[in-house]
Specification:
The protein folds into two domains: 2-173 and 366-383, Glycogen Phosphorylase B (Rossmann fold), CATH 3.40.50.2000; 176-362, 3-Layer(aba) Sandwich (Rossmann fold). The strands form two sheets. A seven-stranded parallel beta sheet has the order 3-2-1-4-5-6-7, sandwiched between helices. It is α/β, with parallel strands linked by helices. It is 45% helix and 16% strand.
Length: 386
């Protein structure tokens, strides 16, 4: 038996990563079962999902999409014109592929495909990653057969009829993050055997300039009490690169401090080892990032990105703070002194740090990918003729 699964979602890695985690879990289940799976990923023509999806050997189809904004922008007028084009393209794609189920993980790129699937009466499972429901998923929820949520607080944003279709799945995380080795992390960072805690600081693949500048201005002070792996990101071509500035500052430090600082633009396949080494994580507060940090039981200092639609990163981080798993530094309050004080405070109290890590794990749902994969298969099998 062959089951066809159409997957859609994108615009940011926070929507793409859960979809890829679920696809991999579905593949693992199929490898141990007597059915075959065929996938098609529908995303935006101009989005970053194409390269990420095709890297996993998943067929990809790009359609026109218009970004959904909660604020005035001239681009709203051009983007709204793309929506009907995207729906027409999605209708053709759904008709041709004839999926047994559609999995949608949010982002404006998912809306045309979800609407097309509803018109063609294909079962739809949507997944929301954050503590509040994004605008795209608010639209998609009206069409959904099943609504999976990462956090219970998102239930309050659904209508009564939608709540009856909703359940708490958690946010899928990559399996690879659980296979880290602390010693390998230290080797990769070229850290020597000093008895110092290690901190992973990240602003994501494009970096977060406000975080990078705070590290830059306080680097010599930070390295007095910890070792740092710093993913500073790659800024757009033609703009100043934070890597160059940070490298210069680090190069002017005494040799013993230089050895405590590992600067990189990207952290790729080595991420499980970096996480294994880290005693503390300093990062933005995207839903995917928080899901991985909590799954690994890591204490964190979150610096939420603002403004975002509904300020969901602050809400994500606040949930962790309320559980005792993290601290927040507001972006408007972040500078070198604030960052240094918060990191020192966290690392000097080892008992509190351990308690924060334990609290983080209480928020995690490590079986989320498996539960979502099973839910997708259940919907698909209901729509597949015997």
């Amino acid at each position: 038996m062959k089951i066809r699964i159409l997957v859609t979602g994108g615009g940011s890695s926070g929507h793409i990563s859960p979809a890829l985690a679920i696809i991999q879990t579905l593949r693992d289940i199929a490898a141990r079962s007597d059915f075959q799976l065929e996938f098609l990923y529908v995303g935006g023509k101009r989005g970053l999902e194409k390269s990420l999806v095709e890297a996993q050997n998943i067929p990809f189809l790009g359609v026109e999409t218009g970004k959904l904004r909660r604020y005035f922008s001239r681009e709203n007028f051009t983007d709204i014109a793309r929506v009907p084009v995207g729906i027409a393209q999605s209708l053709r794609a759904v008709k041709k592929f004839a999926p047994d189920v559609v999995l949608a993980t949010g982002g404006y790129v998912a809306v045309p495909t979800v609407l097309a699937a509803r018109i063609l009466r294909v079962p739809i499972l949507i997944h929301e990653q954050t503590v509040q429901i994004g605008l795209a998923n608010r639209i998609a929820a009206r069409c959904a057969t099943s609504i999976a949520l990462s956090f219970p607080s998102a239930l309050e944003e659904l209508s009564q009829s939608q709540k009856r279709k909703a359940w708490i799945s958690g946010n899928p995380v990559r399996d690879l993050i659980f296979n880290g080795d602390k010693a390998e992390g230290a080797r990769l960072a070229k850290f020597e055997g000093e008895d110092l805690p290690s901190v992973y600081i990240t602003g994501g693949s494009q970096g977060a300039r406000v975080i990078n500048r705070a590290v830059e201005s306080s680097l010599s002070q930070l390295l007095q009490f910890c070792r740092i792996i710093h993913q500073c990101g790659q800024q757009p071509q033609g703009t100043e690169q934070d890597f160059d500035r940070l490298q210069q500052v680090a190069g002017n430090l005494p040799q013993d401090l230089q050895r405590r600082y590992h600067l990189t633009r990207f952290v790729g396949a080595e991420i499980p080892h970096v996480f294994a080494l880290a005693d503390l994580v300093v990062s933005r507060a995207g839903a995917g990032t928080i899901a991985e940090i909590c799954a690994l039981g890591k204490p964190a200092i979150y610096i939420p990105l603002v403004p975002t639609g509904g300020d969901e990163q602050t809400r994500n981080a606040q949930m962790c703070v309320e559980a005792g798993a993290a601290q927040i530094i507001a972006q408007s309050e972040l500078d070198g002194d604030t960052l240094c004080a918060a990191m020192r405070n966290a690392l000097e109290n080892r008992a509190k740090l351990a308690a924060m890590g334990a609290a983080a794990q209480t928020l995690a749902k490590p079986d989320a990918a498996r539960d979502l994969a099973n839910a997708v298969l259940e919907l698909a099998q209901k729509s597949t003729p015997e």
